[in-house]
Known about the structure:
The chain is mainly alpha-helical and 231 residues long. The protein contains eight helices and no strands.
Amino acid sequence: MKELLFxxxxxxxxxxxxxxxxxxxxxxxxxxxxxxxxxxxxxGSNFLVWSLLGGDPxxxxxxxxxxxxxxxxxxxxxxxxxxGLMRVTHRYKPTVAADIxxxxxxxxxxxxxQQFRGHEVHVGPATFYVIVNALTTLFLAxxxxxLWKIRAKGxxxxxxxxxxxxxxxxxxxxxxxxxxxxxxxTTFYILALxxxxxxxxxxxxxxxxxxxxxxxxxxxxxGNEQRVAxx
Length: 231
């Protein structure tokens, strides 16, 4: 049963990443968020294949899984997430160079953190992940407040719950193993993958709510999302 729940949680995250990532790119032209969503989905796909093939830590799939994990935990669902959401909170539209630079930084971080790959906890990287997550959470609290002010209470509550759950997962990840979990940490990954998929879904809905408000109030010009909706 646990294995089935794990597969369903991973498939949910994969679907959310690819589906909503593509929507962010096609409908809103937000390549920062869209590509990061797709990278998370790709990471989930690799993780699923690795797990189905036996979860060998010596496999190249494990190396790829560790890289994607470090990529998103260090820069992807932190700096890139904030930069992408600032499109609807501050009308921030980064240049192509800034987009490329953000992903280049994430790649560099993922490659650098490969040296800490292994089952033992490395306090330095683990602490770094928690700190950048906490800093990102501060911005997400502001993001939730903006949603609440425009009366998008459903997305605001959803984003708040997703952020709180993700923060709990980030702290649990390295420092507080779930009592009674197996050696593969199946219970933890069921909760983590479900939460991460929920984040991708809820942040998309919240982004859409703020974008639509900005368009309705004349702060943001209507983009190609209206043409897509009619297609």
